[in-house]
């Protein structure tokens, strides 16, 4: 027993020395190497695929945003309100979820029976940057009316921003809301101009 | 293209990639752990740590080394977290003491259960210097223990199981670190961030404000999946776009979390000198994984056709199939990373993820833990099967006698004991029930999921359950600690008992442990033992919910 | 699923033509048993029918009730849990009486009782046998010879090692010992059941006598070799009674596994109560106990010790006494079998199998010559030549030849020096037959020559492992001529090849041990189909072979009877001594075969395997049963709370209470139903292990899943009429 104990103490010192050596190698050197590679070959991605308009950052292509106002395409409901410093889903299920969906439907003035599934469900991250094509299309009349644009014009814009499955089979067809709204703003600017 | 075709193709590509990689990787790992030479950098480490790489250890010493290293790891990580406010890059992150205990135990035990929100609880310094380091060493510990057990089977009439420090360092330098580097760069190219920028608030087009986070995410994400860790840089874990920006990174992450566990059967086969044995274990793991994947996917696809769809808690860029694939793989591997919220899955889908853990993390299980857990079930299977053909049971010529079956049975007992006792107490304790989000059967599943996840060192959660209270933090930490180290000590004792035996030769009367019949029984034992143990609990949780 | 009501004779598929076939032998002994007086015969032992079983169960009821003592039940952790559950349920039934609670408590007690009955029935068989043995051990006095040669009468129980006693005809030998003077015929039927007396004489390998046996003729002087109370017959009684029965290693391992399974189910059921409370429907302790008892492996737990006792008992049925259960288990693992050639594989004597005429000569002449020259040869070889030749001669010729002695022929006897025998006829014709080289010398010394064709034949026979004899004749005034060659060879017993093939299928390598030269050995080995042979074997060679096999991790079984076999018997993992052998051999071995039949090893191996298979099969069956029980009980417990759970009631049981009661009744009755199987053992077929596994999985695994669904449903049909 005492030999096991002394063995434990001896191994613990070895463990401590090992932890310190490994911390330098894995906790400092490894992330630094990956960071260096990122700076060299993937600077944009490493920084977070940021979007700038007129020199100021307005968001990230990867991160969904809260869109207020009928003139914008909206993203999905978010459990965290697209805050960005918190993330996560609603974790609701069963009747609690049914109730929540009904509440979201009435807020967005959507008919739960016909609305696309993503229009009334919150994502896991609360930062989903995408919506389904169906949800984007369903918003066309509202956006066009709010901006005084022809529905066909807006619909064509949506069509142009539908991303297919990656490599033809991976993931889902989807529309990046920020990209769509940027194009929308540009279109409005042109029409206004 | 329909979702079904897309989903099946995704799975096919994943399986093809795993099939292509597991042979070279498995053989490479066998070579790594039987190599007689040391790399220069390894020798430098041994000198700094002051261990003699040439000396081998008996099972007791090996176990003591594992425990000592892990306890030191827990203490160091705990201190790092508690003192993070005075360390660099603090950025206001803070954690309660009980949460810190939970977190320290969690990352050292390869669980990576997070009672805190990733963004708020830990500073970038702790994430990188503390958590990332444990993300590396905890799978290396599991790998070392698995290799020690394999040596117990492979060696004849010996006493030693190898040297823990050598196995740890080699596992890191020759397997885990190189793969993690490749994985990190691939994820980086796919859009995962890697920067030291402080959170910045931007003004959005519609005039709102949003905080954009920075962090050394790609480096941590790669090892989080590869090491079957699962602790997210962000609260939303792999659902967060900065951790998992698109369908390609998603597939890469699923691949990373499965690749070592699915390659280890090959390592085992090569090390014991009978590759068919490796195929048996691989067949066992793959069958269970396929079984659970089918159940979870079926349930989610079925739910998607329902009135609410199945997208609550799921990302549009992934959709139902890849989310079910991720959920199955993460719970089958003790990873616990999530790309969708399991709590919002359908009753049977979430129940499937839960049952995947209840099988004991062996389909294919965590790095190392999967292999040794599977071998423990193999010994159990051999015991029953051996009796049924009229032979004293033996695996690879090692007899499964009184001592071996005692250690095996106790190993199997640990996890159900923790899950059932703590779920039983928790479900009637106001301290716990007050933290539940759901009510009724789903609430029971929440609590059961938490303790199952902890006892199996998985780390995923039905995240509606607010586990950040002293009682839950400490009981979950206890489950994680015992659920990790009791089996490790028992498995090493088993290895010690096996290594001392002479390998008996194979005769026509020996039960071949590579026949399809044996694999069938092997899978049957795992499912029946898991099923019988947890059926009453599952009946009151997911089954009652699904059938009501 | 239920075992057949009649038992077959042997666990191995024996060749009916084989005189050593155990079934045939047992039948023979059985017949004698019905005449009374056979120590080992227990009525109805080999044909267990349900009526007989029922009778046995009833007679063991008092014992079974006595075994309800918790100190006894404690030995089986699984049954102890049932016992505690029964107490809890009974207390509950008394406190809050209901038909439901009382029905459950009665059936729970029945479960424990049935387990005790199984054990008692298995033990009962041994006890009956022990009683008969004890009755035969009635000797009370002995004539002890003092150093001065005088005799004193002492109680047999006072004899110690080294005492010398004199035993006269019709006296019972007072203790185990070696004959040091004289020779006697001894009736050993008290131990072996064999009524034909055996000869015991001083010196050599037949000097051992066993206490309790009776001297029939002549007197012997015996030196006692065992202490009183430790004699062979005492140990035999202890063994068959199960008094010295200890759990075998594998049985302990299985018990540990079953205990851990029980703990897991205990946890599952205990954790269920708070979950039930949370869900809003706390369960009564009675229902929880019922669920627990149904889940824990009661079937195997109840029958485990009966299986072990019955395994030993089956050996006794084969007239083998195992000194420990460990050896029986080891027998199942044997991978190398050492068999003595002589008496085991072959008849032991070389026999004439063929007469070959010299080139250019007819068969008639050589046959006549062989016949005449062997008429006076009384060796077994000589007799076999006469038999072979006689069959080829027509009767007038034979009668003419048989008259030769009266006609004045003189015979030359076989001697070790000449290695020839023959006959000299009155007309001067001389016939000679003998070892080829001796005959060749005789022929050439008388001016004849050995034809090269004969030399070729001789060499051919020798190289095939046979023994060539040459036959020659010298007619008056002429040079001797070689007429032909007789082929002598060792004849392998019929059916051996099949038996060895069977052993090979069981994964056992057979090694033949023989004193023959390698050439002969090789040929016999090939003919008998053994895997390997050890020629010109000395006891040291045998020992070395065993050690070498064991070094390779193989378990070795062997038989032996001589004192010089003792070290090898002790070294081997399963050493079977012949009862005719010396005391030293019996002491060294871990089994004694009372029939002294070396092929018995094959049966022993089968019994060892059968023992393990029965345990494995019933364990699998027991656990597989749980699936159906869950489907019966869980919906019954919670269907009021969650009506949807009725979907799990897939066999449509009448009501929640009837479902629970039916599951408990099934659980108890299946023990009774499986008692015959556990006593008889699961049939073992020599087949590849994977095929065996597949078959047993199908029968006991799949059967274990399906059977309770049917059984519980049927019981429910009855139970649903009770006022629960």
Automatic annotation (TrEMBL), chain A:
The keyword Membrane applies. The keyword Flavoprotein does not apply. It is found in: Cell membrane. It holds the Pfam family KdpC. InterPro entries: KdpC. Its main location: membrane. It comes from the Bacteria. It is a single-pass membrane protein. One of its GO terms (molecular function) is ATP binding. Keywords: ATP-binding, Cell membrane, Ion transport, Membrane, Nucleotide-binding, Potassium, Potassium transport, Transmembrane, Transmembrane helix, Transport. One of its GO terms (cellular component) is plasma membrane. The system is composed of three essential subunits: KdpA, KdpB and KdpC. Belongs to the KdpC family. Part of the high-affinity ATP-driven potassium transport (or Kdp) system, which catalyzes the hydrolysis of ATP coupled with the electrogenic transport of potassium into the cytoplasm. This subunit acts as a catalytic chaperone that increases the ATP-binding affinity of the ATP-hydrolyzing subunit KdpB by the formation of a transient KdpB/KdpC/ATP ternary complex. HAMAP family: KdpC. This is Potassium-transporting ATPase KdpC subunit. It comes from Humibacillus xanthopallidus. The gene is kdpC.
From TrEMBL, chain B:
It comes from Humibacillus xanthopallidus. The system is composed of three essential subunits: KdpA, KdpB and KdpC. PANTHER family: POTASSIUM-TRANSPORTING ATPASE A CHAIN, POTASSIUM-TRANSPORTING ATPASE POTASSIUM-BINDING SUBUNIT. This is Potassium-transporting ATPase potassium-binding subunit. Belongs to the KdpA family. Signal peptide: none annotated. Part of the high-affinity ATP-driven potassium transport (or Kdp) system, which catalyzes the hydrolysis of ATP coupled with the electrogenic transport of potassium into the cytoplasm. This subunit binds the extracellular potassium ions and delivers the ions to the membrane domain of KdpB through an intramembrane tunnel. The gene is kdpA. Keywords: Cell membrane, Ion transport, Membrane, Potassium, Potassium transport, Transmembrane, Transmembrane helix, Transport. GO terms for molecular function: P-type potassium transmembrane transporter activity; potassium ion binding. The chain crosses the membrane at residues 59-83, 172-193, 247-267, 279-298, 369-389, 410-432, 474-498, 518-539. GO terms for cellular component: plasma membrane. InterPro entries: KdpA. It is a multi-pass membrane protein. Pfam families: KdpA. It is found in: Cell membrane. It comes from the Bacteria.
Automatic annotation (TrEMBL), chain C:
Belongs to the cation transport ATPase (P-type) (TC 3.A.3) family. Type IA subfamily. CDD domains: P-type_ATPase_K. Residues 1-45 are annotated as: Disordered. Part of the high-affinity ATP-driven potassium transport (or Kdp) system, which catalyzes the hydrolysis of ATP coupled with the electrogenic transport of potassium into the cytoplasm. This subunit is responsible for energy coupling to the transport system and for the release of the potassium ions to the cytoplasm. Residues 1-14 have a biased composition (Low complexity). The active site is at 340 (4-aspartylphosphate intermediate). PANTHER family: POTASSIUM-TRANSPORTING ATPASE ATP-BINDING SUBUNIT (PTHR43743). Its main location: membrane. This is Potassium-transporting ATPase ATP-binding subunit. It is found in: Cell membrane. Its EC number is 7.2.2.6. One of its GO terms (molecular function) is P-type potassium transmembrane transporter activity. The keyword Translocase applies. Keywords: ATP-binding, Cell membrane, Ion transport, Magnesium, Membrane, Metal-binding, Nucleotide-binding, Phosphoprotein, Potassium, Potassium transport, Translocase, Transmembrane, Transmembrane helix, Transport. Residues 144-241 form the P-type ATPase A domain. Pfam families: E1-E2_ATPase, Hydrolase. The system is composed of three essential subunits: KdpA, KdpB and KdpC. It catalyses: K(+)(out) + ATP + H2O = K(+)(in) + ADP + phosphate + H(+). The chain crosses the membrane at residues 73-93, 99-118, 252-273, 285-309, 630-653, 659-677, 697-715. It is an enzyme of class 7 (translocase). Mg(2+) binds at residues 561, 565. GO terms for cellular component: plasma membrane. ATP binds at residues 377, 381, 414-421, 433. It is a multi-pass membrane protein.
């Amino acid at each position: 027993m005492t030999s096991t104990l002394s063995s434990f103490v001896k191994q613990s010192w070895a463990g401590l020395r090992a932890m310190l050596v490994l911390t330098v190698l894995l906790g400092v050197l490894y992330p630094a190497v990956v960071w260096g590679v990122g700076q060299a070959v993937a600077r944009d991605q490493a920084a977070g695929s940021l979007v700038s308009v007129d020199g100021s950052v307005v968001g990230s292509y990867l991160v969904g945003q809260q869109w207020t106002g009928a003139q914008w395409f909206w993203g999905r409901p978010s459990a965290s309100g697209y805050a960005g410093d918190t993330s996560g889903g609603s974790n609701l299920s069963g009747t609690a979820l049914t109730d929540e969906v009904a509440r979201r439907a009435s807020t967005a003035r959507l008919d739960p029976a016909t609305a696309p599934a993503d229009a009334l469900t919150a994502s896991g991250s609360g930062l989903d940057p995408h919506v389904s094509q169906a949800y984007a299309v369903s918003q066309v009349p509202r956006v066009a009316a709010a901006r005084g644009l022809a529905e066909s014009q807006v619909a064509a814009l949506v069509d142009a921003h539908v991303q297919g499955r990656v490599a033809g089979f991976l993931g889902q067809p989807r529309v990046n809301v920020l990209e769509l709204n940027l194009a929308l703003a540009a279109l409005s600017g042109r029409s206004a101009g | 293209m329909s979702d079904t075709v897309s989903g099946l193709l995704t799975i096919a590509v994943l399986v093809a990639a795993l099939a292509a990689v597991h042979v070279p990787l498995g053989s490479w790992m066998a070579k790594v752990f039987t190599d007689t030479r040391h790399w220069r950098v390894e020798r430098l480490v041994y000198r700094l740590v002051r261990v003699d790489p040439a000396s081998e250890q008996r099972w007791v010493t090996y176990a003591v080394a594992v425990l000592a290293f892990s306890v030191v790891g827990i203490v160091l990580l705990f201190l790092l977290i508690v003192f993070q406010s005075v360390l660099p890059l603090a950025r206001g992150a803070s954690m309660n003491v009980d949460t810190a205990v939970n977190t320290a135990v969690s990352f050292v035990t390869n669980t990576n259960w997070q009672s805190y929100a990733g963004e708020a609880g830990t500073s970038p310094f702790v994430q990188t210097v503390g958590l990332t380091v444990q993300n590396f060493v905890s799978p290396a510990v599991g790998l070392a223990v698995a290799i020690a057990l394999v040596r117990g089977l492979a060696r004849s009439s010996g006493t030693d199981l190898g040297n823990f420090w050598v196995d740890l360092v080699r596992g890191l330098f020759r397997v885990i670190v190189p793969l993690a580097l490749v994985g990190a760069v691939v994820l980086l190219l796919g859009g995962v961030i890697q920067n030291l920028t402080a959170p910045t608030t931007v003004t959005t087009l519609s005039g709102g404000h949003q905080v954009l986070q920075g962090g050394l995410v790609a480096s941590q994400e790669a090892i989080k999946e590869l090491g079957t860790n699962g602790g997210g840089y962000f609260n939303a874990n792999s659902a967060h776009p900065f951790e998992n920006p698109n369908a390609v990174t998603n597939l890469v992450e699923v691949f990373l979390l499965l690749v070592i566990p699915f390659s280890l059967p090959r390592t085992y086969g090569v090390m014991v000198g009978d590759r068919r044995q490796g195929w048996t274990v691989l067949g066992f793991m793959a069958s269970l994984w396929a079984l659970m994947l089918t159940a979870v996917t079926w349930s989610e696809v079925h739910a998607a056709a329902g009135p609410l769809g199945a997208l609550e808690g799921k990302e549009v860029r992934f959709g139902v199939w890849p989310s079910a694939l991720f959920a199955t793989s993460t719970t089958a591997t003790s990873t616990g990373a999530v790309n969708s919220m399991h709590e919002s899955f359908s009753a049977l889908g979430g129940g499937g993820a839960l049952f995947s853990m209840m099988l004991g993390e062996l389909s294919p299980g965590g790095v190392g833990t999967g292999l040794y857990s599977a071998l423990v079930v193999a010994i159990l299977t051999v015991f029953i099967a051996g009796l049924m053909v009229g032979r004293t049971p033996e695996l690879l010529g090692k007899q499964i006698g009184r001592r071996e079956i005692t250690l095996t049975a106790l190993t199997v007992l640990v996890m159900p004991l923790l899950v059932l006792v703590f779920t039983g107490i928790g479900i009637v304790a106001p301290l716990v029930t007050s933290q539940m989000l759901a009510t009724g059967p789903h609430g029971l599943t929440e609590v059961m999921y938490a303790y199952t996840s902890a006892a199996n060192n998985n780390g995923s959660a039905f995240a509606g359950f607010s586990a950040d209270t002293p009682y839950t933090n400490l009981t979950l930490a206890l489950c994680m600690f015992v659920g990790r180290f009791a089996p490790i000590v028992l498995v090493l004792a088993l290895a010690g008992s096996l290594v001392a035996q002479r390998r008996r030769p194979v005769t026509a009367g020996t039960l071949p442990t590579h026949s399809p019949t044996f694999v069938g029984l092997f899978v049957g034992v795992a499912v029946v033992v898991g099923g019988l143990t947890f059926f009453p609990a599952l009946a009151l949780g997911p089954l009652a919910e699904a059938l009501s | 699923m239920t075992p057949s009501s009649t038992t077959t004779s042997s666990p191995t598929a024996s060749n009916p033509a084989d005189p050593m076939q155990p079934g045939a032998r047992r039948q023979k002994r059985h017949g004698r048993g019905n005449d009374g007086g056979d120590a080992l015969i227990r009525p109805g032992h080999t044909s267990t029918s349900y009526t007989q079983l029922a009778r046995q169960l009833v007679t063991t009821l008092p014992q079974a009730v006595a075994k309800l003592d918790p100190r006894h039940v404690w030995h089986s952790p699984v049954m102890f849990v049932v016992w505690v559950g029964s107490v809890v349920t009974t207390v509950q039934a008394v406190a809050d009486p209901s038909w439901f609670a009382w029905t459950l408590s009665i059936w729970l007690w029945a479960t424990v009782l049935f387990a005790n009955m199984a054990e008692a029935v298995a033990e009962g068989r041994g006890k009956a046998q022990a009683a008969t043995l004890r009755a035969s051990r009635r000797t009370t006095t002995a004539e002890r010879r003092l150093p001065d040669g005088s005799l004193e009468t002492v109680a047999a129980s006072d004899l110690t090692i080294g005492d010398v006693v004199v035993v006269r005809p019709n006296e019972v030998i007072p203790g185990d010992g070696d004959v040091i003077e004289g020779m006697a015929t001894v009736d050993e039927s008290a131990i072996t059941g064999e009524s034909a007396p055996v000869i015991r004489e001083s010196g050599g390998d037949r000097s051992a006598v066993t206490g309790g046996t009776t001297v029939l003729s002549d007197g012997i002087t015996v030196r006692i070799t065992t202490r009183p109370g430790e004699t062979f017959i005492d140990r035999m009684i202890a063994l068959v009674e199960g008094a010295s029965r200890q759990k075998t290693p594998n049985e302990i391992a299985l018990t540990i596994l079953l205990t851990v399974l029980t703990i897991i189910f205990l946890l599952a059921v205990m954790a269920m109560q708070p979950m039930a409370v949370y869900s809003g429907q706390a369960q009564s302790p009675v229902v929880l106990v019922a669920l627990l008892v149904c889940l824990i492996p009661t079937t195997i737990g109840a029958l485990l010790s009966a299986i072990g006792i019955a395994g030993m008992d089956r050996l006794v049925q084969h007239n083998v006494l195992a000194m420990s259960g460990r050896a029986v288990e080891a027998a199942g693992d044997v991978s190398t079998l050492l068999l003595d050639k002589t008496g085991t594989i072959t008849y032991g004597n070389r026999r004439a199998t063929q007469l070959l005429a010299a080139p250019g000569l007819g068969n008639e002449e050589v046959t006549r010559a062989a016949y005449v020259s062997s008429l006076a040869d009384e060796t077994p070889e000589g007799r076999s030549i006469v038999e072979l030749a006689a069959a080829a001669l027509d009767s007038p010729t034979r009668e003419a030849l048989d008259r030769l002695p009266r006609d004045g022929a003189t015979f030359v006897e076989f001697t070790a020096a000449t290695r020839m025998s023959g006959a000299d006829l009155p007309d001067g014709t001389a016939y000679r037959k003998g070892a080829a080289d001796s005959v060749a010398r005789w022929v050439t010394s008388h001016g004849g020559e050995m034809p090269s064709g004969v030399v070729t034949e001789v060499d051919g026979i020798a190289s095939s492992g046979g023994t060539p004899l040459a036959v020659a004749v010298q007619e008056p005034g002429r040079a001797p001529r070689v007429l032909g060659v007789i082929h002598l060879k060792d004849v392998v017993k019929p059916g051996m090849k099949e038996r060895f093939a069977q052993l090979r299928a069981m994964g056992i390598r057979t090694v033949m041990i023989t004193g023959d030269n390698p050439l002969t050995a090789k040929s016999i080995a090939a003919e008998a189909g053994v895997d390997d042979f050890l020629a010109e074997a000395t006891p040291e060679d045998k020992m070395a072979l065993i050690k070498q096999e064991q070094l390779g991790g193989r378990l070795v079984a062997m038989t032996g009877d001589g004192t010089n076999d003792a070290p090898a018997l002790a070294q081997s993992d399963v050493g079977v001594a012949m009862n005719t052998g010396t005391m030293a051999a019996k002491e060294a071995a871990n089994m004694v075969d009372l029939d002294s039949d070396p092929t018995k090893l094959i049966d022993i191996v089968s019994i060892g395997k059968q023992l393990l298979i029965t345990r494995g099969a019933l364990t699998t069956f027991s656990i597989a049963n749980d699936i159906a029980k869950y489907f019966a009980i869980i919906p019954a417990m919670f269907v009021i709370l969650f009506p949807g759970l009725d979907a799990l009631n897939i066999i449509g049981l009448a009501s929640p209470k009837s479902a629970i009661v039916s599951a408990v009744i099934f659980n108890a009755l299946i023990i009774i139903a499986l008692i015959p199987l556990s006593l008889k053992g699961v049939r073992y077929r020599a087949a590849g292990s994977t095929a065996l596994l597949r078959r047993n999985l199908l029968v006991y695994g799949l059967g274990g899943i399906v059977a309770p669904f049917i059984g519980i449903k049927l019981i429910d049909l009855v139970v649903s009429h009770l006022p629960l």
